[in-house]
């Protein structure tokens, strides 16, 4: 049973399970021979952990950069408060009174930083989806092989006829009633 994520100790409990990782790991493991499934699973898990850590580090740095760049503090702000405000929103909240206009500016800068970083993350995700869509072969394409020349049995050279191969179990073709004895997965095209 799936349940909503629960906030705990400053983090998010990953419940429901990360379905994206489950599907990706299944795709990786199913694409290798069974004897290499353990290694493939380990590589998929390592890639997930590394990309999660790198994503947090890079996107967190962008949030901090945009937050600090968006802070326009008046000159009369106390140097200790200035340091707290430019450090983080949490530090600003602890150092300033709740009705402070400087705290409002810090909240606004943080909101803009989060929005900007979310747009960057969305663009990266969209680019990754396009790359995956273009580079991962579909099952339909994998089931068909391109047409190839038929070898002439008498001369041993390719003829002008083409054979289209498909991966499917051998079964009688509908034309078998007309005397065509070909079975299975090859169709000859003139």
Your description of this structure?
- It is a single chain.
- The protein is mainly alpha-helical and 190 residues long.
- It has a three-stranded antiparallel sheet, with no helix packed on it.
- α1 runs antiparallel to α2 and α2 runs antiparallel to α5.
List strands and helices in order, with pairings.
Elements (H helix, E strand, L loop, with lengths): L6 E2 L2 E2 L6 H12 L6 H33 L9 H9 L1 H7 L5 H35 L3 H5 L4 E4 L6 E8 L20 E4 L1
Antiparallel strand pairs: 1-2, 3-4, 4-5
Helix pairs in contact: 1-2, 2-5, 3-4
The CA-CA distance between the termini, in Å, is: 56 Å
> How is the biggest beta sheet arranged?
3 strands, antiparallel
Binned, the helix content reads 40-55%
The residue-averaged pLDDT reads 75
- Category by helix and strand content: mainly alpha
Topology order in helix (H) and strand (E) letters: EEHHHHHHEEE
Instruction: Give the beta-strand count.
Output: 5
Q: Provide a count of the helices.
A: 6
Spans of at least 5 consecutive residues whose pLDDT stays below 50 are 1-12, 176-186
Strand percentage lies at 5-15%
Give the overall shape, derived from the CA principal axes. Answer: elongated
Q: Whole-number radius of gyration?
A: 30 Å
Biggest sheet: strands side by side, in what order?
Answer: 3-4-5
